Amino acid sequence: MSMAGENQTSGEIIKHHLTNLTYGQFPDGTWGMAHTLEEVSNMGFMAVHVDTMFWSISLGMVFLFVFTLAARSATSGVPGGLQNFCEIVVEFVEENIRQVFGTRPNAIIGPLSLTVLVWVFLMSMMDLMPVDFSTIVAHAVGVDYLKVVATTDPNATLGMSVGVFFLVLYYNIKIKGPIKFGAGLFTHPIPHWSLYWFNFILEIVDLIAKPLSHGLRLFGNMYAGEMIFILIALLPFYAQWALSLPWAIFHILIISLQAFVFMILTIVYLSQAHDTGEH
After folding, report:
1. How much is the pTM?
2. pLDDT score at 255
3. How many whole angstroms separate alpha carbon 217 and alpha carbon 15?
4. From start to end of the chain, where are the E strands?
5. What are phi and psi of 176, to 5 degrees?
6. pLDDT at 57
7. Which one from 213, 244, 256, 271 is the annotated catalytic residue?
8. Which of 221, 244, 256, 271 is catalytic?
9. Of all residues in the chain, what percent are helix, strand and coil, respectively (each to 5)?
10. Tens-place pLDDT, residues 94-120
11. Which of 14, 209, 253, 258 is the most core-located residue (most Cβ within 10 A)?
């Protein structure tokens, strides 16, 4: 529901809700927190979205706390509700790893996939918070802007996808060897010396496209969902109740699907990195 000021236009309200709390360097060389949209737009590359950092780290700690608590209180007898939930999530992740990655030894694939699934879900679930609630809380503590959905920030989604990309490069070099991996960039998909240059271009484009599509897919879906929530909040009060609940229910499915897709692509990319056969 919307509680935005009546003196603001719809465009100004949308911009306000989609602006991150930003700390960075101003054109005059000084550093500080941006208080207006103009200050945010004038900041260069050296800037940090403080709200994205805060919510992503906080929800990551929530994930660690819940699963650590479940592990420490686990029993071989009748499990409690928390243990049941955590076991279901872990078994779901393990089953997907078996189907995609197989039984190849890798100490990181399980914890990484579990973290990606739950962490992305928790960050995206913040989208269900009433649109103006974060604004009211932020103003109460003297903060001008506050976005609570970290996955609507491409810095967060691309940061995760680039992290996976570096792991893919690491395992490509470790499993295949630097010579075989480098040679594969030139000899696939057409193993003829006259087309090595063409193969290299295709392989480089493929390598770059993977982290971009991995991160931007999640960002695009969550950003669109946040935009729809804001547009619903701009409607009259009676229309908000008619539309917000059905969209919130549907959005829960989107959140779950996007967390699953991000996890399964992580498994697929790491599985490809471990494949020592031909393409």
Report:
1. 0.88
2. 95
3. 22
4. 22-25, 31-33, 47-49
5. -90, -20
6. 96
7. 213
8. 221
9. 70, 5, 25
10. 999 999 998 888 889 999 999 999 999
11. 258
